[in-house]
Input
Amino acid sequence: QSALGPEHPHTLASRDQLAACLQAQGLFAAAESAFRQALELRRRVLGAAHPDSLASMGHLAACLRALGRHDEAEPVFRRTLELQRAVLGPEHPHTLASISSLAGFLRSRRQFAEAEPLYRQALALRERVLGSDHRDTVGSVNALANCLRSLGRHEDAEPRYRAVRAWREQWLGAEHPDTLTVLNNLASCLQKLRRYQEAEDLFRKVLEARKRVLKPKAPQAMHPHTVFSLSNLACCIRDAGRPGEAEPLLREAL
Output
């Protein structure tokens, strides 16, 4: 700032990066103020429709969401996407990211029916632009599967989770935390479909892997994700008609 001036593009970029750093530390109120300053300056210097200004809008929307101010965040998410479609085009990576961000926001608000077509749109565009094996495309497959599961459409979600599992096992390894998360979600789908033995086998696999991979902060404790897996396994066994086996697992998870 002292060398280039407060309105130089590099200074503005540094201000935006500082806001992102504050948000990453959980300092959301300070981050919001910094994002607003960066957005105001970028609009004045670069113009409201400049890609950097639109990026700042998206960052502000995400910060407002993190602060729980959803009624303020939603119109910013929507306006960012609208402008990016007009300025950058529907297939620009920033536009695709904003489609996914709006869909994720709506899903977090339990507006699943509105989120689903946005997830499908992001997936179709990423398949066309990036290819089916790109990590962002696979992320869109996983996000759509999560939305379908939230809608109770487990048969539609299952093959998508299986595809994501195959990709993550290949790229990340069988015991990477992200791989174990998709295995857990696949098991949950199978449980809802009353395919209890398949679900139980997967839940056990996730539980044993998390015990090995995830280290708790306190000695003799259990990592929260491992506790979650233990509870999931117990509920699956209970739903399969074996409450006597489920009870000690549930007690252990308490």
Summary: The radius of gyration is 22 Å.
